[in-house]
Amino acid sequence: xxxxxxxxxxxxxxxxxxxxxxxxxxxxxxxxxxxxxxxxxxxxxxxxxxxxxxxxxxxxxxxxxxxxxxxxxxxxxxxxxxxxxxxxxxxxxxxxxxxxxxxxxxxxxxxxxxxxxxxxxxxxxxxxxxxxxxxxxxxxxxxxxxxxxxxxxxxxxxxxxxxxxxxxxxxxxxxxxxxxxxxxxxxxxxxxxxxxxxxxxxxxxxxxxxxxxxxxxxxxxxxxxxxxxxxxxxxxxxxxxxxxxxxxxxxxxxxxxxxxxxxxxxxxxxxxxxxxxxxxxxxxx
Length: 285
Hints:
This protein is α/β, with parallel strands linked by helices. It has helices at 12-16, 19-28, 40-49, 74-81, 96-100, 121-127, 169-182, 212-220, 231-238, 252-255, 276-284; strands spanning 3-8, 33-38, 54-57, 85-88, 108-111, 153-156, 186-191, 205-208, 224-227, 243-247, 262-266.
């Protein structure tokens, strides 16, 4: 393979669970040019790590021609024809994408659903590569080979993409005060677009809506990360940071990073079922 295109949309967590599949492609074809159409800010992490050579935004207008009955523009056909392999994880409920490809003789087109159907989620995306003879039982990809020596800083991420996945803020506040006194640690309060900038103000150093490379640099220096089922949690795990993750309505077998340095706390589908003492016990265990 000389050129490979991966179509993968979604947010940060969706991209990170695709990293093991990208790593399989890179190991098999180390000199291939691998491009991705998807989340450009998240994919910047793979660009710097050498898994990708180029990224195209999933929001570009040209992709609309892939769906429906609109004639395929010749320039887009010519561009797609440059690729020896096209791997699609984009939604395709009506089969529009599958009808468009391959665009030339000798081109390989593989498609798997956008939503995972087996656990952990990364296994679903790796499974799509079996027709190429690529297999693995390692469904976790580390973004850095060796982490810097940890500092006394502990990161708290009290948010996620859904309020249902969030532990009550008052419990985060209680836990944060306990951590600061019990562990004598500085707290890094990580928040994103879904959270207000002043969440847990006064408990520690705010890190609000940072660019992913900057956030990654901050997290990589932490000795511990606490969060929910979120993209930031996947990022922390991929950076090798020991994680304690609180789960409720989502299945950790599917969505928790499958790595030995990740510990999950779940007490059923309701996040409020997790007590502060539950988390304290995990930190002391």
